[in-house]
Amino acid sequence: MQHCIHPLDEFRVHGESDVEAQYCRAALCLLCRRRKAIEERRVLKRLLEAAQSTAPVPLLFFQTLTMADCPPAEVSARAGLLVKAFSKLRRMLPHHLGWARVIEVKASDFNPDLENVHLHFVALFPVGLSEDVNAIQWDGLWRKCAGELARDCDPDARFAEDTESVVHYLTKAMVWDFEEDGKTGIEDPGRYVHRVHLGHSKFSSGGKLRLRTAYSELDKACGLDLVTPVSTLRSQSRQLTRPVHDGISIEGATPEATEPRRRR
């Protein structure tokens, strides 16, 4: 990683023909993780622009929620608590039309041996709720949701003037974080693995900002289209337990093969 110059970002010429880059698809690959994050950023921008094109135009509010710094081994547990606390916080907000969030991990500003786990989020609100949202005491609300491990919120949180500023806010440390991950992977591989297993810099969303499940060409190139969604797995599980109706002739099948399956 120290000497990586991202050779797969461009097509490589082999003889007289162009050879398309083949991504390794490894979970720990910085390049594949970075490319996926860039695509997620593009998707989020399109969803924000689509939401802003509706009438009446919803308000975009963005905020940062931070947990107390922790040792690298506790990153995953701390991120899990962060997600649960954010779910509680969403239920306490005035009626919102959609949300998107991204979890990030970086070295603590106070102690480089510790990790800072935080979450950026944006929420859509109807125009009539601007005063209610501005009146929210974010630090108190966040401590109520996250408990003693809550640290603070962004005191400059506000409504956005355009979608570009929101996308930049949610991904402002994307490039820097991946550079830090590369250095961390060299100095402390175990610490890097904990960050990757956490899945930081991965978006999640709901409502009008629900990320689409359609795969782009970049997803396919990175092998992301090979990941089966949980909903699909559940559907397949139900299909396996569904009985086969009698009276359907299957050419070449034995009588036992056409007997109804029993539910377990």
Tell me what portion of residues adopts beta-strand conformation: 15-25%
Low-confidence stretches: 10-17, 222-264
Along the chain, the helix and strand elements come as EEHEHEEHHEEHHHEHH
Q: What gap, in angstroms, lies between the N and C termini?
A: 49 Å
User: What general outline do the C-alpha atoms trace?
Assistant: globular
User: Helical proportion?
Assistant: 25-40%
**Rg, alpha carbons:** 23 Å
How many helical stretches? 9
Mean pLDDT: 76
Backbone structural class: alpha+beta
Number of DSSP strand runs: 8
Main sheet characteristics: 6 strands, antiparallel
Structure description:
The chain is α+β, with helices and mostly antiparallel strands. Helices cover 39% and strands 18% of the residues. The chain has nine helices and eight strands. Strand 4 and strand 5 (115-125) form a beta hairpin. The longest helix is centred in the first third of the chain and has 23 residues, at 30-52.
Task: For this entry, give a set of tags.
single chain, 264 residues, alpha+beta, six-stranded antiparallel beta sheet, 39% helix
